[in-house]
Amino acid sequence: SERGIKRALLLNLKKILWPRADLVTAVGTAVEEDIREQIGLDPSKTRVLYSPILDQDLERLSKMEVAHRWFEEQVPIILCVARLVPAKYHETLLRGFARLLVDRDVRLVLLGAGPLRLELEHLAEQLEISNSVWFAGFVENPFNYMRRSSLLALTSLQEGMPGVVVQAMACGLPVVGTASPGGTPEIVQHEQTGLLIPMKDPEALFKAACRLLEDPGFARQLADNAREYAKRF
Question: What is the pTM of this model?
Answer without folding.
Answer: 0.87
